# Entry
Amino acid sequence: MKVLVTGGLGFIGSHTVVALLESNYDVVVVDNLYNSKIVVKDRIKEITNKEFKTVICDVQDETKMEEIFKEEKIDAIIHFAGYKAVGESVSKPLEYYDNNLNSTITLLKLMKKYNVNNFVFSSSATVYGEPTRVPMFESDPVVEATSPYGETKVMIERILKDIAKVNKDFNVALLRYFNPIGAHKSGLLGEDPNGIPNNLLPYIAKVATGQLKEVNVFGNDYDTVDGTGVRDYIHVVDLAKGHVLALKKLESKPGLVIYNLGTGKGTSVLEMIAAYEKACGHKIPYVIKPRRPGDIASSYANCDKAKNELGFVCDYSVIDACRDGYHFQVEENKRNQK
Ligand code: UD1
# Structure
């Protein structure tokens, strides 16, 4: 089975390509290197000892994308490519709607033309907006998102649902990720955002390696275990495995399916800092700051559906994820210094 992976050199994409190759899928990667590095291609080959084709191109470039559909007999697509910075999406809404919606529509038009009927979409827990309850279930309402980034996920889910309604041959998995963290145990793949990270774990990693002074903890007066925000942090290697399981599910021609991919367990910011301290073996300084606008108190998944229908269970704990994330950051810093 040949799988086209858009954004296959990015954080979640690269780990998923490893999981696919290890499960003996043929893989074609498309990536425009907007938020990824070409060297990731060689690192995936080093880890898996397997070959795969990589095309450097923008998914919105319909002519180039059509060449791939003509040359390769694609059976399924996993679509990661997209802009994902929440804060940036608020200041650049047009760029976000343009890129995320048009790239998906380009793919869907080509899928129709070339009769490709299996699609896995990289969605997010952000589609639940301000949750009415935790844990969140797939049947919970999808609401107006709190950012243009989130809104693109809501809109693309809607487009895919509408297509699945009329095209009975179309099989699509909407995978709603909670908070992906960690890195490949080799230290070769991980997340190293440019500039000051927005997300908690990349920020802690830079404090742990001395690149930033202290972690800013955004609020300690939420109604949670210790007053700090609670999230469902999932190791990226577990998340990658979820994609392989979703692809297998599509082989049974289920039409549209929706799965939360998380651990089902919430961890607070302070608990996360403590886990990281255990993983890296030294203290992580932090200061309490005001709440970050737009943040919610708690978000974690109910994962029974993925467990029952896909056999999805997580192999790794948050401490494993901190250990692997730290290892990657240390190795990446060494490589960057060379
Ligand atoms: C954010 C996005 C979400 C996206 C996800 C990707 C928002 C509102 N949501 O989720 O749509 O899918 O990233 O992983 O941005 N925190 C600190 N200090 C920091 C950074 C974060 O205390 O320097 C806290 C936050 O207040 C929150 C928790 O850590 O309680 C997690 O934050 P973050 O990693 O940014 O993820 P989310 O906000 O859950």
